[in-house]
Design brief:
Blueprint lengths: L1 H10 L17 E7 L13 H9 L7 E6 L6 E2 L14 H13 L7 E7 L21 H16 L3 E6 L18 H10 L5 H10 L10 E4 L5 H12 L5 H25 L9 E6 L5 E5 L3 E2 L5 E2 L3 E4 L7 E6 L17 H6 L4 H14 L2 H15 L3 H8 L11 H10 L4 H8 L2 E6 L6 E3 L5 E4 L2 E10 L5 E9 L6 H4 L2 H8 L5 E3 L3
Parallel strand pairs: 1-2, 1-4, 4-5, 5-6, 7-18
Antiparallel strand pairs: 2-3, 7-17, 8-11, 8-12, 9-10, 12-13, 13-14, 15-16, 16-17
Helix pairs in contact: 3-4, 4-5, 11-13, 12-13
Length: 511
């Protein structure tokens, strides 16, 4: 019994920092970065968490490895499988890779490494973890952490493989109840691996079920019910020595047949819009809905006619979706409040809009009376220390329900927006909202990184920015394009542009 326990402990003990010569024939040292947050499903439904994690290490067959369990900044543990409890409060990729960098620094120069990350792709950094990280004023913590993570991966220059564990569809990563970034995982592997992570190389590596010298698979998907049945071959494939077998298979079995096939059918199958790498741009005016239809004969903005992709409709009848750029309906003039008990200065400030309120307070500070200046200083002090969640709740109170709400609290909550840029954007900045129709009907705000369907096309929102011929440009990147044999999804966008005789992947949606 003791002998069996001792062997089990040996099998679960990560490799120490040793020289490559100390592990003959073992290849690269594998750094496992395992998501320890509460959102990650179990690695295997048939085994306990720790046992499943220890079993995964047996797939290495004696190769050197290290383990980093990560959640938030202060939830990172090294080489301690007993900490694998999936109880992390946050999911911060930056500090996980920072710990990997520290581990790499303990090895002799020239040691080869691979990083294998198991995660559900939810980016959820803890705001307090970034207080000393030089975050720009007003910056979104989540986006800033993603930016810093990509910069760190670019600096590490270590091959990165990602095993996505969770309920993930075949065509992309769904936002779900908590926001995910459908492009973040792809951005990570492309930043870490360079040209080897190009879409064509990934498709060919998946097709041949092998990793070569150049054609490697970097992203694996595992549903919760699949567990080790899918994780085992993925780990074995990742740690196996590279060989040129997949490239030879590609050259011998695909190049010539594919070339003939492309010459015969490419003009028919991918000449029309859309194709890989294409972008649709929808221009919007504030408050005016734009109705989108798919695959209808329409005049293309760059010239000529098209029968596929998005186009505009005059009304919602027959449309696949409608998008509108509009400001949130928020009444800030104090309607419904009882202001009779307020002093004269408060009564003067209560009905003002945010910009006008800030202007008047500046005027008081510059040329107001002594009493007015004291009032303005007190209001600024109270507003700065006002709880943001409470301010949001007060300002969202409908006018019909404000009778019992203290008018002075409403004024202070409104003044809080002058010093809280993030909350001000959340409450007042116009947003693009999509309303889908038909079988996949949905209503959602379109923020950068959001995955959305319009008809049978899947899109990733690339950007929402002011400019163009109207108030704002909604940039949609094609994520899923139905086509024969999937040609439009894996043929290089440069080749498709040549066949279509187009110099750009962008197209402004028109009628």
């Amino acid at each position: 019994m003791l002998a069996t326990l001792w062997l089990a402990l040996l099998a679960a003990t990560p490799s120490p920092a040793v020289t490559p010569a100390a592990v003959p024939g073992a290849g690269a040292v594998t750094l496992f970065l395992v998501d320890n947050s509460a959102s990650l499903p179990p690695l295997d439904p048939e085994e306990k968490r720790v046992e499943a994690l220890e079993r995964m290490f047996t797939f290495l067959q004696g190769q050197a490895y290290r383990l980093v369990l990560f959640g938030g900044r202060h939830e990172v543990f090294v080489d301690d499988v007993q900490r694998y409890r999936n109880n992390g409060q946050w999911t911060d990729f930056y500090f996980a890779f920072l710990k990997a960098k520290d581990l790499i620094a303990t090895y002799p120069k020239g040691t080869e490494f691979k990083i294998v990350m198991l995660t559900d792709a939810i980016v959820d950094p803890g705001p307090s973890d970034w207080l000393d990280m030089d975050v720009p004023l007003g910056a979104d913590i989540r986006r800033y952490s993603i930016q810093r993570t990509l910069e760190l991966l670019r600096e590490l220059k270590v091959p990165l493989y990602v095993i996505l564990v969770g309920n993930l569809p075949e065509h992309g990563i769904e936002p779900g109840d908590r926001e995910r970034s459908p492009s973040f995982v792809l951005d990570m592997v492309r930043t870490a691996n360079g040209a080897e992570a190009a879409p064509l190389a990934q498709s060919l590596a998946s097709f041949f079920k092998d990793d070569g010298l150049l054609l490697k698979k970097f992203v694996y998907r595992v549903a919760p019910h699949e567990g080790m049945k899918r994780i085992e071959p993925a780990v074995r494939r990742i740690v196996a020595p590279a060989s040129a077998g997949v490239e030879l298979k590609f050259l011998s079995s695909l190049i010539l047949p594919l070339s003939l096939f492309v010459l015969l059918l490419l003009g028919i199958l991918v000449r029309s819009f859309p194709g890989a790498g294409d972008v649709e741009i929808v221009e919007l005016s504030t408050g005016s809905p734009v109705h989108l239809v798919v695959d209808r004969m329409h005049n293309v903005d760059s010239g000529g006619w098209g029968t596929t992709g998005l186009s505009l409709s005059q009304d919602a009848k027959g449309a696949a979706a409608s998008v509108t750029y509009q400001a949130p309906a928020l009444e800030l003039g104090g309607m419904g409040l009882d202001g009779d008990s307020l002093d004269a200065t408060s009564k003067r400030l209560l009905p003002l809009g945010i910009d006008e309120l800030g202007k008047v307070l500046q005027e008081i500070d510059a040329s107001g009376s002594k009493e007015e200046k004291i009032y303005a200083l007190n209001l600024d002090y109270v507003a700065r220390n006002f709880d943001a969640a409470q301010a949001e709740k007060i300002l969202h109170t409908p006018p019909a329900e404000r009778r019992s709400l203290p008018a002075l609290d409403f004024l202070r909550a409104k003044a809080h927006l002058l010093t809280n840029a993030e909350l001000r954007r959340k409450l007042l900045e116009p947003r693009v909202q999509l309303v889908g129709y038909g079988k996949d009907a949905e209503r959602k705000d379109l923020l950068p990184g959001t995955l959305v369907r319009v008809g049978h096309y899947g899109f990733v929102v690339k950007d929402v920015a002011k400019g163009g011929r109207k108030d704002v440009r909604l940039v949609l990147y094609y994520d899923r394009i139905p086509s024969l044999l999937g040609l439009k999804n894996w043929l290089p966008d440069g080749l498709q542009r040549v066949v279509r005789m187009r110099g750009t992947t962008q197209r402004v949606v028109s009628g």
